[in-house]
# Entry
Amino acid sequence: MKQYASSERTKQALALSLKKFMEKKPLNKITVREIIEDCGVNRKTFYYHFQDIFDLTEWMFDRDAVDFIRQYNSVENYDDGFRFLFTYIRNNRHLCACALDSLGTAYLKRFFYKDLYETVFSVIREAAAGLEVSQEYQEFLADFYLGALISVFMNWMRNGMDEEESEKIIRYLKLTLRGNLRSALVRADNPNHFLN
# Structure
């Protein structure tokens, strides 16, 4: 247990150092040497925990935001999860803009997809309770909704991360999602609905 705690502290120190450098320059200009010198650890320690700077970046975002948003994996509180994610991105705008500029849209889409898929799928699974809906269709809905959500977030990031805009987007997401997900699942439960 002590070794785990020590390992976590080391990873957190490396992430804090990375954040500091990300406020000053693009991610692809930050070196492992700068981070280890700032933290006072050796190169071997860095590579024991992470493959490269991008691996550290992914861990940092995972730790900061995605672990927290996974708590919002229910139909009842997913809009709170959206609000948290918007707030996190806005409060860490330098980090997120640096990651977007350095890693590109495709990388961030893959990152969000990998880490948020299970959360979206949990909401769909809960909405499908009591219905006979195939796993395949539930996975299709997860892909569909997650793709749309990621696009909304990426556009918002590119357009300045405005707080009023984020509240408007949350309202629109609630209008769009509330009831529609369950309706799609009910129709899938009764395939005859597709014939109408």
